[in-house]
Amino acid sequence: MKSNQNKSAINAGPNEFFLGVTTFFPLIFAATPIGLLFGALAAQKGMSPLEVLLMGSFVFAGGSQFLALDLWADPLPWLTIAFSTFLINLRHVLMSASLAPKLGHWTPLQKYLGFFILADEVWALSEQRAIKHHTTFSFYLGVGLTLFITWQVATVVGSLIGAVMGDPSRYGLDFAFTALFICLVMGFWQGRKTGVVLAASGLAAVLTHKFVPGAWYIIAGAIAGVIAAAVQYDEKTNGLRKPAEALQS
Amino acid sequence: MMSEVFAVDPLVLFTIVAMAAGTYLTRIAGLVLTKFVTFSGRTEAALQAVPPAILMSVVAPTAFATGIAETAATAITAIAALRLPMLAAMTLGVVSVVVLRLALSVI
User: Fold this and answer.
1) H-run or E-run covering A161
2) In Å, how far is B106's CA from the nearest CA of chain A?
């Protein structure tokens, strides 16, 4: 199925772009400290400011960047990092699938270039905008570029400061990752079923971490959580769909 | 371990490119998939569990199998995250781990 690409001028306009920038504005104050922290921790792991800038620009996904730092070691476990990044970013599949039908008149080029910067916050604000209007490319770009610039500046500055900051555990900053991720986890909280998913993945991760070397505990925990979610899925409360296509294990 | 500002290790660059490729794939996947399939039912429920399950797996060893200070600080952070803005909850978590470690080392 192909969608009609309507080449109208609705996408253009500095007003939509400016609206995107101002919509994002308050989030600058939330993103900057987290960016500074990322840069500082990256410097502790031996990354140069340019490497920090490259990772921020090419990957541009905070959660997975923190995860990569957590796994960062010598020698660099690049395959584990790449695979874990892919897994943690699987949520983007759902995000882009949800946003795709709500876009205004985007050309295919705008879609495939624009979604390069589909970070969580960009997605959230675009969805919010889509409640009342189609999300135009200009609006999306206003939101996305503001976050992009904020993130790069904050992380690079953080890495420059971090290099002279010393041992992060002195300030409890080694716990900052854990605290950040706990906050993100709680953002996904939707009641008892989430609790079961978290218990399953937490237990699987702790046990695997104890007995299997390397970062396999993340994958084991992810699989356990996904199975817990699939098992808990209830036809009656979640809609009338055809039964059991999951549960392959 | 003084890294130069513009130093780029080839393996680091390769890792970044590998991360970026996978991430871009997940971001455009929705554009491609919505043309062919609609997620529904159990599959969607399973996919939605992926982010919290991964985040939980990452923190679990530190949060639950390191020490009393870390486990207690984890609980404090989790409760704070339900009530406070993220940055405030994070700060509270970091401060409590410092205080608890100090308190436990004195005892």
Assistant:
1) helix A137-162
2) 16
